[in-house]
Amino acid sequence: MGLKVSNQEVEEERDEEGKGLDYAKRAQWVRAGVLGASDGLVSTAALMMGVGGVERDDQSMILSGVAGLVAGACSMAIGEFVSVSSQYDIELAQLKREGNMDQKHKLPNPYSAAFASALAFSLGAGVPLLASASVSSHRIRMAVLAGVVTLTLIVFGALSGCLGKVSRVKFICRILIGGWMAMAVTFGLTKLVNDFGILLT
Predict the structure, then answer these.
(1) Which of 47, 72, 155, 201 lies most in the core, judged by the most C-beta atoms within 10 Å?
(2) What values do phi and psi take at 137, rounded to 5?
(3) Domain containing residue 58
(4) Which residues in the chain belong to E strands, given as ranges?
């Protein structure tokens, strides 16, 4: 009987711990990290596929990916810094009005947010670059690029669902469809511009 009560108490403690977890707050960090990484992955891959669709030169395709990584990481960092800095100023002003400055250490750090955003984007963007850099054939490179991006998006979707305690299938489908659409539109429009000489005359 004593053992039974003990086990029951353990289960209750576990339940309380589960209730204490703030999945909404954790989901915000998950969303930021996955969003940054998937943005880097998809935008860089789409850029490389767009260039690869009209230019078979290996160097041009790789350089477009490098340029996308650097430009995207800088853009993400600057955007996050401005956004979090604004949030910091608003929350700091509120603490001053309330006379509760001892809570200042809990405010978001713009520099950390900018670094994390740039890092997440760079990690995602590095995937298509590394995957295509080791392939010599243009056709195989394009196929490998699409395959690697698809697999990585599935991993991102599953990870988001797991950490956010929601349906993994929903996350995977959502992120896959968005990624495929971005690559298809970029590839198609770039090829269209090249074929018809739009904006080039």
Answers:
(1) 47
(2) -75, 135
(3) 35-196
(4) none
Dist. CA 112–CA 5, nearest whole Å: 46
Over residues 3-28, the pLDDT tens digits come to 444 444 434 444 444 444 445 555 56
Domain total for the chain? 1
Q: Mean of the per-residue pLDDT values for the chain?
A: 82
Q: Report pTM.
A: 0.78
- Taking only the tens place, the pLDDT of each residue in 162-193 is 766 767 788 888 889 999 999 999 999 998 88
- Which residue in the block uniquely carries the two structure tokens 């910091």? 88
Which whole-number Å values give the CA distances from 91 to 8, 103, 104, 106, in the listed order? Answer: 43, 10, 9, 10
> Within a domain: residue 22?
no
* pLDDT value at residue 42: 94
Cβ atoms of 177 and 42 within 8 Å: the answer is no
Reported confidence tier of residue 71, pLDDT bands at 50, 70, 90: very high
Of 10-24, 59-73, 126-140, the range with the highest mean pLDDT is 59-73
Cα 107 from chain centre? 23
Does residue 26 belong to any structural domain of this protein?
no
- Tally the C-alpha atoms within 13 A of residue 97's C-alpha that lie toward its C-beta: 6
Of 191, 187, 109, the residue nearest 145 (C-alpha): 187
* Per-residue tokens: 96: 């001053």
**Buried-state track 88-121, b at ≥16 Cβ within 10 A, e below 16:** beeeeeebeeeeeeeeeeebeebeebbebbbbbb
